Amino acid sequence: MLCHEFSDRYSSQRDVKLLSRAAYRRSWQLACLTTLVLVAGCSTQKKAPPTPPPPVVRTIKPLPPMGAVEGMSIPEVDSSGKYLTPNRGVTANTALWHVRMALNVAALSCYGVNEPARLQYNRILHVHEGILREANAAVDRNYTAAFGSGGLQSRELLNTVVYNFFALPPVTKSFCPVAIEVGAKILAMPSSQLLAYAPEALTALEKPFQDFYEAYADYLRRLAEWQSRFGGTVTVVVSPTPLPPPPTPPKEVSAGFVPPPSMTLLPRPQEGSGAPLVPSTTRVIVPTFPLTKPVK
Predict the structure, then answer these.
(1) Is residue 64 part of a domain?
(2) What is the domain extent for residue 112?
(3) Tens digit of pLDDT for each residue in 74-85?
(4) Alpha helices in 169-285 (DSSP H)
(5) How many domains would you assign to the chain?
(6) Which whole-number Å values give the CA distances from 231 to 53, 197, 224, in the listed order?
(7) Buried-most residue among 23, 114, 156, 175 (CB within 10 A)?
(8) What global pTM score does this model have?
């Protein structure tokens, strides 16, 4: 009996010790876990790596088309969307004479593979000599009717503008093939068809210049956009001071026109005579472009 009671007491004490040890173990585990959590919470969070800068995009400054110079002035646009040129509104005889001047410029400016321009021009002067002489007389008559004694001066002024127009250096490369094509058509047709063909020929000869002006205007727009986005050291005006409108040729008059007695006509000076083609008493402003020697 006594032994049984001692055994029960001993078992109870052992159970209490075991329970105490288990409770202590759990408490220690909880304390360790709590410590780890606190240490993790107090640790410094790592910052995300900085965002790399955007890649550098190389920019190319727009350049004038066809090797033209910067800051060049171009004509204004008329109501039809075409750039104002000295060929606007010309009539049959004036158109034919402007075609002759254009082909003359081609003969002086086109070299190498475009050498036929010179040969064609000399041939045209011979084959169509009669109709060209008549056209020249008709244009003289038109200026006399419109300007009287100042007709010669007005015509020579417009001739200068027309020659300079077709001699614009950046357009020579694209102008020469067109001049050769027009010259071939003129040589292939009878003189009686030249007046009817002249306006069409003049439009074809002028197209490379219209295309150049359009390309230059587009260059100015792109240059202004480039400077606004990436900065620039010069100020670009999208619409620079345009060229002054070229003089307009007079209207056609009939072959029977006779100047009135009160109209004093100036004699036409001959080239090479030393007399000025344009009287020096009147100051005129003619837009000119530099002529360049061909690259060999």
Answers:
(1) no
(2) 84-230
(3) 999 999 999 999
(4) 172-188, 194-230
(5) 1
(6) 20, 50, 10
(7) 175
(8) 0.68
